[in-house]
Design a protein that fits this description.
Strand 6 and strand 7 form a beta hairpin. Helix content is 21%, strand content 41%. It is built from 4 helices and 19 strands. It has 2 domains: 157 residues, Jelly Rolls (Sandwich); 127 residues, Rossmann fold (3-Layer(aba) Sandwich). The strands form 3 sheets. A 7-stranded antiparallel beta sheet has the order 1-4-13-6-7-8-9, with no helix packed on it. A 7-stranded antiparallel beta sheet has the order 2-3-14-5-10-11-12, with no helix packed on it. Strands 16-15-17-18-19 form a 5-stranded parallel beta sheet, with helices on both faces. Helix 1 packs across helix 4. By secondary structure, the protein is an alpha+beta fold.
Length: 294
């Protein structure tokens, strides 16, 4: 999809049918912000930049789930291609290369791919850096600065369906929960739903699992039986601050100490219990969607 509709929120910028022209002016460089009517969270944004000064900053502006500012692109301060986050000060989560290595008046092609919490930055189709950070859905917005005029053009968006990764013991009892409750509810809300035994690649299973956790919008974990693999995957998810929904059969008396403080959806393995877990799981997933949009 070509993105052509932009509004100038701040600064001296001209927008026309997807062409963004930053104007440095006589007073020197100043920050500018342009925003589209199209929202983005999962997928790929591509654009070309044509610069006339290396003292230039070009960033896709987003926010994290923790409401921190996130900038993906080229930092004017360091001239590095980077993924940055603002705590009390700006810090780079990942960086590589330098804008100083690129010629003036020649297109530089940026590609930013976000899947779940995995953010990757490519320059001229070459991978530069990546970071793990959950971002909120928001209108496509660029933060721009330079001491010379420059343009952005050929701005394109390719969206992808958000994913849920399910961790559970692989047995007939839990296969039924997955096939009759978790998967249908997830797909009704337009999530792709996958679990660990659905991998068919030749790579080691642990690499597939950690990659899938990063690429997922959220994790659903069934924790009724004590299963070390499930607990490992929950621990990994919490370590990278991935939204996680815990499910547990009411027959279980006590949760492990490390999980007892987390909100858990309890269910009964009955017809009535199935309906209730469908309703509650739907509410939880809708809440995750609304949190990513707020």
């Amino acid at each position: 999809m070509d993105i052509k509709n932009f509004a100038v929120i701040k600064g001296n910028v001209i927008t026309q049918h997807g062409l963004i022209t930053y104007k440095a002016g006589n007073s020197g460089d100043a920050w500018a912000t342009v925003r589209s009517n199209i929202s983005f969270n999962n997928g790929t944004i591509e654009f070309a930049a044509n610069i006339k000064s290396h003292n230039t900053g070009i960033n896709l502006a987003m926010n994290s789930f923790g409401n921190q500012k996130v900038r993906i692109g080229c930092s004017r301060t360091t001239s590095k291609f980077s993924i940055r986050i603002e705590d009390e000060v700006w810090r780079s989560l990942s960086k590589a290369g330098s804008l100083n290595n690129y010629e003036f008046n020649k297109d530089i092609f940026f590609k930013i791919h976000i899947e779940g919490s995995l953010i990757k930055l490519f320059i001229n189709d070459i991978f530069f850096c990546e970071a793990n950070l959950s971002t909120k859905e928001s209108p496509i917005e660029f933060s721009l600065i330079s001491d010379a005029d420059f343009t952005l053009h050929n701005i394109k968006l390719t969206t992808s369906t958000p994913k849920l990764f399910v961790v559970m013991q692989f047995s007939s009892e839990y296969n039924e929960l997955y096939n009759e409750v978790i998967k249908p509810v997830s797909e009704k809300l337009r999530f792709d739903c996958i679990r660990g035994d659905e991998f068919y690649a030749g790579t080691p299973i642990l690499l597939d699992i950690t990659k899938s956790i990063k690429e997922a919008t959220a994790i659903i974990a069934e924790i009724t039986p004590d299963n070390p693999n499930v607990f490992y995957e929950i621990g990994y998810s919490h370590a990278i601050e991935k939204p996680t929904i815990l499910l547990c059969d009411k027959r279980r008396a006590n949760l492990p100490f490390d999980l007892s403080s987390f909100r858990t959806l309890y269910y009964e393995n009955t017809i009535a219990g199935k309906k209730k877990i469908e309703i509650n799981l739907t509410k939880y997933l809708e809440n995750i969607k609304s949190s990513s949009n707020s």
